[in-house]
Amino acid sequence: MDEEYDVIVLGTGLTECILSGLLSVDGKKVLHMDRNDYYGGDSASLNLTQLYRKFRPDESAPTKLGRDRDYNIDLIPKFIFASGELTKILVHTEVTRYLEFKQIAGSFVYRDGKISKVPSTEIEAVKSPLMGLFEKRRAKKFFEFLQSWKDDDPATHQGIDLDKDSMKVVYEKFGLEPGTQDFIGHAMALYLDDDYITKAARPTYDRIILYTSSMTRYGKSPYIYPLYGLGELPQSFARLSAIYGGTYMLDKPIDEIVTDEDGKFVSVRSGEETVKAKQVIGDPSYFGAGKESDGGKVRVLEEGKVIRAICLLNHPIPGTDDSDSCQIIIPQNQVGRRNDIYVAVVSSTHNVCAKDVYVAIVSTIVETNNPQAEIEPGLKLLGPVFDKFVSVSPLYTPTSTGKADNIFITRSYDATSHFETVVEEVHDVWRRVTGHDLVLKAREAANIEEGRDEAP
Q: Looking at residues 285-299, what average pLDDT do you find?
């Protein structure tokens, strides 16, 4: 390996693969390496054999679950907002030509011991048990206020300053009950906790508008999901990189990140081979995460760890109207926690498991020394579980920007149920690596809905 590259990318998680694809399109010479023999890293989709090998190396998958090749089970559950930033990147890069999507059937919220659908139409809103009659009127005025807001038209502001007033002020202006605030903040704005209430209202406004615009795009729910699982996303960006000259090497152990006497990145060593580049980008596991001697490159985030339980079921989730897929949010104060619990459900409709099998993943941020007990409220909603695979993962973040040593480390995948924070990370790392903002140009020819019977 005598060649020198502009950038070496380590790990084929979605964040790394998007960056690799975008840098290749931008004319950079990219080498992408992964110690695994499959794409996706922490955000991979595994077949049955891989799933059992990862969680129970001494056990084989039961034959009653069907064929190995029918399974593409996500390690980390996230859905895509139909009008979100990831959709814009997919369209901008024309990666949509490698992917097919299907809509997630519904979004539900847990309240007072039962789950209710987040309304997707006015008729559903009128019938919804989430609010009483008078509260529905107040909520209607609240949403009309958000939808009609124009920054340059004070007449639409009703005395509110989104950049100065907190969400508490906005909620109080419209007289919304705590239960409604809960529903809006956690099931629509998708905050993990209640810290947002005392902060400026602008980010919450942006999140609600994203949710409602994604909802109106296809109806039913604001989310879409790639057929054959989330592992298709990094693979598709890998293809994009290859088209523009990027080189990929899977199943390649990374033995050393070589730096000079000033600590600046020089090369990557794999066995007897060494390859040079100007910069290196990688996920935390390649820079000492989880080891005693991490050299100070990464640290554990304040929120610490995420627990995820992958559950295989032979029935739809009770109370979801037999939906083939859904998201269920359990707001933290409904179960006496600081952080929400998420349940993501997909099925054979999405080509991720055998017929009549459902995959439900329950996840939350760990708050105690008994993580399994923390996800019990989510597990109880599932009904009988055929098999369950539990993981607890630390959340890592880099300790520096990477500008001083040309080592750019990405953050661990957080507990959110969508990809917006992943795209924020892509923008942040792009800015650090290139020195300028990532600009996504609209492409008239690219349309995520082309040639699709379903949503996009």
A: 69
- Using a 10 angstrom Cβ sphere, with 0-12 exposed, 13-18 middle and 19 or more buried, the burial of residue 212 is middle
pTM: 0.89
Tokens 């990094």, residue located: 234
φ and ψ at residue 155, rounded to 5 degrees: -60, -25
Element (H, E) at 102: strand 101-103
Position 168, amino acid: K
What average pLDDT does range 391-411 have in this prediction?
93
CATH class of 304-395: alpha beta
What amino acid occupies position 44?
A: A
pLDDT of residue 101: 94
Identify which of 374, 366, 389, 370 has the alpha carbon closest to the alpha carbon of residue 300. 366
Taking alpha carbons only, the member of 73, 42, 102 closest to residue 312 is 73
> Mind listing the pLDDT tens digit for each residue in 122-171?
677 777 788 888 988 898 899 999 999 999 999 999 999 999 999 999 99
Map out the domains of the chain as residue ranges.
4-94+227-300+396-434, 119-218, 304-395
Pairing of strands 73-74, 45-46: antiparallel
Q: Return the closest-CA partner of residue 429 out of 32, 15, 26.
A: 15
CATH number for the domain whose boundaries are 119-218: 1.10.405.10
User: What CATH homologous superfamily does 4-94+227-300+396-434 map to?
Assistant: FAD/NAD(P)-binding domain (3.50.50.60)
Q: What share of the chain is helix, strand, coil (3-state, %, to 5)?
A: 35, 25, 40
Using CA atoms, how far apart are residues 45 and 53, in angstroms rounded to an integer?
A: 13
Rounded Cα gap, residues 89 and 236, in angstroms: 12
Tens digit of pLDDT for each residue in 195-227? 999 999 999 999 999 999 998 888 788 999 999
Whether the predicted pLDDT of 445 surpasses 50 = no
Q: What is the per-residue pLDDT for 38?
A: 85
Q: Which residues pair with 81 in a beta bridge?
A: 223
